[in-house]
Write a structure and sequence with these properties.
The chain is an alpha/beta fold and 410 residues long. The protein has helices at residues 14-19, 34-44, 58-64, 98-108, 131-142, 191-198, 206-214, 251-259, 263-274, 332-338, 350-358, 363-383, and strands at residues 4-8, 25-31, 50-52, 71-74, 115-121, 146-153, 163-170, 180-181, 222-223, 279-288, 291-297, 316-321, 324-329. It folds into two domains: 4-230 and 360-383, Vaccinia Virus protein VP39 (Rossmann fold), CATH 3.40.50; 242-330, no CATH class. The longest helix is centred in the last third of the chain and has 21 residues, at 363-383. It is globular and about 65 Å long. The structure holds S-adenosylmethionine.
């Protein structure tokens, strides 16, 4: 069957990087940032389908989407949902672009994809006391999607802590195997609730399960069988270059950051240097009680990559080796490795590259979702389609502008 997809808020294209590996083909990508587009095109070439423009330009967005895509993905801006956004949530102009995506889906009418995938930060679950998550869920349900939601942390796959919330929408053209729907209220047995309650808490955290249970959707909730990965990801040392060609800081900058460490962090680092042990870690500078601290991670996992807005958001590499202590800014190539895209072409403009990767999705996380959710759902659409025919577009409601019937793009 067709595995064509549209990538909204495409950034540098790491959703595409993840999905193409299993046969998905991207037929439309949208982002407003020309610098992200440059990275995207550097990786995938300029095949003309990257629409550089505002997602709120609904008519243009809808007109540029050809055929009938099977999936639309939207990793919409997180700034208003994360700590950095001062809690504006969907009141903020960045994260509310989600509704630009909803409007574009609406405008597609009968050509609306049967599957959607949202991605955002953990703050999506707490923003406005859960009301923003509920608003997003209701908007998708209003388009006819039954929903599931779960969390995955990139640290399950790569040495980077990056917890994220995912919402999957499936309309009635898809019938994925092993998925359980929520039972109507009052039923004695609810396999949906049982699956959520018994799942690994890293995938179905209590806060999310409570939210889902509290929101009564007109279309209903589903639960895919999304397992937590069991493998152990490699340590952060595997992503960090230790050769002398790197841009290591001079002694004064190292001493300054050593002095900024918490006492117990400094003692631990000093002890490893004195013992000639090898240690590779990362540091974030954070303001604590008015003082800037250099906080060292000793757990073999890098902190969450962020865009380098302000000095504190860029991660620092710290290496103790053969009695020497070295430090430097983490490089764009290391950012790319920590996002699971080790060979992604860079522009050579450090700030542009760090912005691109700091905002991006982690490739193996999306691949996990693809394996357990997206590809099985897409296959179910193909199974419901008689041999030799493409799946029909859903009949467009009378007021849908773009409601002509078209075929899935393979
Ligand atoms: C979280 S990032 C998505 C990153 C992307 N998934 C990747 O892997 O690179 C959000 C993206 O939304 C884009 N964006 C923000 N406002 C937008 C708008 N009004 N229209 C289209 N894109 C927008 C930003 O430029 C940014 O690249």
């Amino acid at each position: 069957m067709g595995k064509a997809f549209c990538e909204f808020f495409a950034g540098i294209g790491l959703v595409r990087e993840a999905l193409e590996a299993s046969g998905w083909s991207c037929t439309y990508a949208n982002d407003v940032d020309p610098k992200k587009r440059q990275l995207y095109v550097g990786r995938f070439g300029d095949d003309g389908h990257f629409h550089l423009g505002d997602v709120w330009g609904t008519a243009e967005v809808a007109s540029r989407i050809s055929g009938l895509p099977a999936l639309a993905t939207a990793s919409f801006p997180c700034v208003d949902l994360s700590l950095a956004g001062r809690g504006r949530g969907f009141e903020g102009s960045h994260s509310s672009t989600f509704f630009g995506f909803v409007r574009a889906m609406e405008a597609l009418g009968g050509r609306r994809p049967p599957l959607v995938l949202l991605e955002n930060v953990a703050g999506f679950l707490t923003s406005a006391g859960g009301r923003d998550f509920e608003a997003a869920a209701r908007a998708l349900a209003g388009l006819g999607y039954r929903l599931d939601a779960f969390t995955l942390d990139a640290a399950m796959f790569v040495p980077q802590s990056r917890p994220r919330v995912f919402v999957v929408g499936v309309d009635d053209r898809a019938d994925p195997p092993g998925v359980v729907p929520r039972s109507p209220s009052g039923w004695m047995v609810d396999a949906w609730a049982e699956r959520l309650e018994t799942a690994d808490r890293r995938v179905r955290p209590k806060r999310l399960v409570e939210l889902m249970r509290s929101i009564d959707l007109p279309t209903g909730w589903l639960a895919f069988d999304v397992p937590a990965p069991t493998g152990r990801p490699p340590g952060v040392a595997t992503a960090i270059d230790r050769d002398d060609a790197q841009d290591w800081w001079d002694e004064a900058a190292v001493a300054k950051h050593r002095a900024m460490m918490h006492d117990r962090h400094r003692e631990r680092v000093d002890a490893m240097v004195a013992a000639g042990e090898t240690f590779v870690g990362t540091i974030y500078r954070r303001k604590r009680d008015g003082t800037t601290r250099a906080e060292v991670r000793f757990d073999g996992v890098a902190g969450c990559l962020r865009t380098p807005r302000g000095g504190s958001a860029r991660q620092i590499v710290v290496v103790a080796e053969a009695g020497r202590l070295r430090m430097r800014w983490m490089s764009p190539r290391e950012y790319a490795r920590l996002q699971g895209a080790p060979d992604f072409p860079l522009t050579g403009n450090t700030v542009q590259d760090l912005f691109g990767f700091g905002d991006a999705v982690c490739v193996p996380v999306v691949q996990w979702i693809d394996r357990h959710v997206l590809t099985p759902a897409a296959a179910s659409i193909a199974r419901r389609t008689p041999r030799g025919r493409q799946p029909d577009a859903r009949p467009a409601p009378a007021d849908d502008a773009g409601g002509e019937r078209e075929e899935h793009v393979a």
